[in-house]
């Protein structure tokens, strides 16, 4: 089995995943409440989740975390108090991938703009589904941070939704 | 007749319209040579073109400019020697729109990341077609520069092409 690192994320047309205060109301107001934009089907294929500390802090108050019994890996240099099912670690993207492979994980969902960009900078992301939201935020927290590496992608699927959001799915060539 | 200011532009999935040297080879290598991605049909609906000085300098060596007899407006504070059919001016987006309206122009094509962002910052763009190219450039010249204004868009059309490029067409709500 070949390990797969995947991205599944919504962003505004101008490339922001949150406003500059980290808020998501613009996304919630744009999305239809009866549509999950393929997220549950995607999550069903995922063995574990990876996120940066900022993303974790946003959801840390949820108990349980909304990922079933999937292990969660939080990349941080300042680990908070331990939590069952959550690994706080300070490893490089390449080390992380190696450890996940050793653990027998098939597909890991990498979340958060900074962490995704760090993995992209090591060419470690295998596929991306970007939900393009029909908003221009003007400013905010970017999905893609500048990195030193370029990549050619293959377009695998395009799915527009009645609410005007569009899923674009790519894999690395 | 209501004036319409339009954007029609290709960018990488990570939001760049050119690499950091201003080069477009990544775009030319991604695009099919026998496909114009709707550009000619769009240009047929356009009465005039607007661009920043950087964009103009990229195409200034072309004689004639590839826009038929449409007038071209170049936004610059340091006008070069005069050229028939080209207006070099230093006006605000709002002033420009007012003058175009006075001239009886129906649809003006606004080109270039900085100029587009300046018009967006005044809520003066009516529709956008973004051709999303299946590349991650990592860094380069952004399509959307940070601005202080957000906008809600309506998705009007989605058109994927066999080469993996996707046209997303939006209008301002």
Please provide a written account of the structure:
- The structure is a homodimer of 173-residue chains.
- In chain A, the strands form 2 sheets. In chain A, strands 5-4-3-6-1-7-11-10 form an 8-stranded mixed β-sheet.
- With 173 residues, chain A is an alpha/beta fold.
- Chain A is built from 5 helices and 11 strands.
- The model of chain A has no long low-confidence stretch (mean pLDDT 96).
- Chain A has a single domain (4-172), classed as Dihydrofolate Reductase, subunit A (3-Layer(aba) Sandwich), CATH 3.40.430.10.
- Chain A starts with a strand and ends with a strand.
- Chain A binds chain B through residues 13-15, 26, 30, 120-121, 128, 130, 132, 134-139, 143-144, 146-155, 158, 160, 164-166, 168, 170, and chain B through 13-15, 26, 30, 120-121, 128, 130, 132, 134-139, 143-144, 146-155, 158, 160, 164-166, 168, 170.
- Strand 8 (135-136) of chain A pairs antiparallel with strand 10 (151-160) of chain B.
Helix and strand arrangement:
Two copies of one chain form a homodimer.
Chain A: E1 4-12, E2 16-18, H1 25-30, H2 39-44, E3 48-52, H3 53-59, E4 72-75, E5 86-89, H4 93-103, E6 107-111, H5 113-120, E7 127-133, E8 135-136, E9 141-142, E10 151-160, E11 166-172
Parallel strand pairs in A: 1-6, 1-7, 3-4, 3-6, 4-5
Antiparallel strand pairs in A: 2-9, 7-11, 10-11
The interface involving the most residues is between: A-B, 35 and 35 residues
Distance between the termini of chain A: 18 Å
Beta-strand share of residues of chain A: 25-35%
Spatial strand order of the main sheet of chain A: 5-4-3-6-1-7-11-10
Task: Give the total of domains of chain A.
Answer: 1
Radius of gyration of chain A, in angstroms, nearest whole number: 16 Å
The level-1 CATH class of chain A: Alpha Beta
CATH fold node name of chain A: Dihydrofolate Reductase, subunit A
Specify the overall morphology of chain A: globular
Tell me roughly what share of residues is in helical segments of chain A.
10-25%
Spans of chain A of at least 5 consecutive residues whose pLDDT stays below 50 are none
Largest sheet of chain A: 8 strands, mixed
Mean pLDDT of chain A: 96
Secondary-structure element pattern of chain A, one letter each: EEHHEHEEHEHEEEEE
Structural class per helix/strand content of chain A?
alpha/beta
- Any idea what the CATH architecture of chain A is? 3-Layer(aba) Sandwich
> How many DSSP H or I helices of chain A?
5
- Assembly level: homodimer
Which superfamily, in CATH terms, is the homologous superfamily of chain A? Dihydrofolate Reductase, subunit A
Count of strand segments of chain A: 11
């Amino acid at each position: 089995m070949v390990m797969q690192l995947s991205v599944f994320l919504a962003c505004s047309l101008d490339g922001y995943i949150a406003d500059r205060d980290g808020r998501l109301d613009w996304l919630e107001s744009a999305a239809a409440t009866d549509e999950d934009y393929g997220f549950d089907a995607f999550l069903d294929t995922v063995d574990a989740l990876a996120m940066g500390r900022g993303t974790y802090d946003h959801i840390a108050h949820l108990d349980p975390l909304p990922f079933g019994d999937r292990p969660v890996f939080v990349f941080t240099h300042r680990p908070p108090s331990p939590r069952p099912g959550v690994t706080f670690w300070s490893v490089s993207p390449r080390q992380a991938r190696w450890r996940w492979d050793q653990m027998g994980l098939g597909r890991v969902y990498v979340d958060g703009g900074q962490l995704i960009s760090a993995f992209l900078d090591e060419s470690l992301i295998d596929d991306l589904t970007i939900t393009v939201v029909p908003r221009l935020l003007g400013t905010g927290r970017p999905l893609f941070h500048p990195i030193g590496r370029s990549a050619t992608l293959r377009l695998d699927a395009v799915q527009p939704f009645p609410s005007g959001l569009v899923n674009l799915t790519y894999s690395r060539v």
